[in-house]
Design a protein that fits this description.
The chain is an alpha+beta fold and 85 residues long. It contains 1 helix and 5 strands; from the N terminus they run E-E-E-E-E-H. It has a 5-stranded antiparallel beta sheet, covered by helices on one side. The longest helix is centred in the last third of the chain and has 15 residues.
Length: 85
Amino acid sequence: MEGMDEPFILKFEFKGKPHILEIHPWIQQYRVSFKVIVEGHDITFERDEEGEYRAISNVNVNADKPVDTELLQEIARRIEEALNV
């Protein structure tokens, strides 16, 4: 898990809207999760049992306006892409 401890930036366009997100790795004993703020929501991305990234929403003040599921899938895909470069 060496080299995964520094935040990195994802820049992309999704449904015509530009996104610039700062991704913060969170290193635990045997795994790495990624914390990011998406449209005011505090989201953690971590691998599930199949090895795919899933998004977990933490308690936040914007619960009345959910984040687009497709956007979360796109972010997970781009995190995976960034790690494989």
